[in-house]
Amino acid sequence: MKGFSLNQATTKYWSLDELVSGCVSVGVSAVGLWREEVTAFGTEKAASLVRDQGLTVSSLCRGGFFHDENWYDENRRAIEQAANLGTDTLVLVSGGLPGSSRDLDSARRHVGDAIGALVPDALAAGVRLAIEPLHPMFCSDRCVVSTLDQALHLASPYPASAVGVVIDTYHLWWDDTVWDGIARAGAEGRIAAFQLADWITPLPSGVLLGRGLPGTGAIDMKRFASAVRETGFDGFVEVEVFHEEVWSRPGASVLAEAIAGYEAAVA
Amino acid sequence: MKGFSLNQATTKYWSLDELVSGCVSVGVSAVGLWREEVTAFGTEKAASLVRDQGLTVSSLCRGGFFHDENWYDENRRAIEQAANLGTDTLVLVSGGLPGSSRDLDSARRHVGDAIGALVPDALAAGVRLAIEPLHPMFCSDRCVVSTLDQALHLASPYPASAVGVVIDTYHLWWDDTVWDGIARAGAEGRIAAFQLADWITPLPSGVLLGRGLPGTGAIDMKRFASAVRETGFDGFVEVEVFHEEVWSRPGASVLAEAIAGYEAAVA
């Protein structure tokens, strides 16, 4: 594995300038970025900033939401933005059930079809589409892809250079089949990103902002890091945490704790 | 399937007297009960009340929490209470990770061992231990059994007359493997209870009280009812919903809506 990367969402209130200087000042060599923040800052300007500071963009979040009316154009723009930022990984959050539908099978098939439609654009841009299974508690409203097995199944018709999967501890830790899935994802060359966040309770209302920094919760981070390392994964390990209390703290302190959590996991 | 049963938790603020008279007055022939309420009312008194009114007790919730210090004695008392109430089904909520442990495999093994230790008591009492897989969002703090596959695996060493599983739509709806699991559970004679509750968002803080009455959310209830019916399941269909807004309404109105949701599902 290449080392630590700070996902921008972890230090949400840092500007992109602060993120870059904060990372460079402590020797962090990679960041994961989010489309909204990059777009607000200016994509070309962001690309220059990270390039000039010698940073790698380990991933861009996020494409997906394939049930939105404009999904195709929006995802093509996301692919282009990823390429412009110099990252080879676009994380996909696939979206929940459309409208009042209760047809999960159909929603999941549509995700597969949509990804297939984007494969030529992804290959042309040199950007890999990284299907992220989200925790089943997000199934109805955010992502119908709930397990690593489902993500691998959706990826399977397409070349591994075009479609991969995201291993995020927060979403997958409860699944006793995840260890086999990680080994299989590695053997297929499909691990596009590896992200750390911990499971803490009680979950907050809406459950989106309930993640803990690695080491603060219930997840066996070392087992995940070992399993991913054993596949030969050679990417960065992103720490990606959403939590109001974490966001309220000084970015440098959060970054230090994120690095410590990463180091304990990969030790 | 035998018909509708009202789980007591759905009309939480009804006393046991109100629950029984409310059910009898609209022709409902079964109720699912909870230990705490039954104990407060008096187990013998509760048993007489339901028997005298011709009601079946479709299940008793709950045994389990196998990582508590007194789990063995507590579960033996639960089995005895179920037998005294005349129900053949004790629902097990197995408990989360013990203390600060992150060892899910070990916690799950302990659940299996604990259930095995209780099998002789269950057989002697004529009460089936019904392992309930809970939604993965409860994995750390309430139940390490997160999927129907896991529940069936834990049940597999023991006779189906002693150990079964609970199919609860709320906990299992997101799982694409659940249909195979239901068929397998049916073929093994292990479906001990079938419960309906719907998935609605946003989830409330703590996520426990976020369930909707059947028909109000994202779950394909008809598909679940068909899948369970096709196994030859001959038990009751319980509606079991926890939600403050539902609890705040008059019990008779909630019961009517629960029955309507059940009828739409099994139609």
From TrEMBL, chains A, B:
Protein keywords: Isomerase
Cross-referenced Gene3D superfamilies: Divalent-metal-dependent TIM barrel enzymes
Top-rank taxon, per record: Bacteria
GO molecular function (one): isomerase activity
Short name of one Pfam family: AP_endonuc_2
UniProt KW Isomerase keyword: yes
SUPFAM superfamilies noted in UniProt: Xylose isomerase-like (SSF51658)
Domain Xylose isomerase-like TIM barrel: 27-255
Keyword Ligase applies: no
InterPro entries: IolE/XylAMocC-like, Xyl_isomerase-like_sf, Xyl_isomerase-like_TIM-brl
Protein name as catalogued: Sugar phosphate isomerase/epimerase
Organism the protein comes from: Paractinoplanes bogorensis
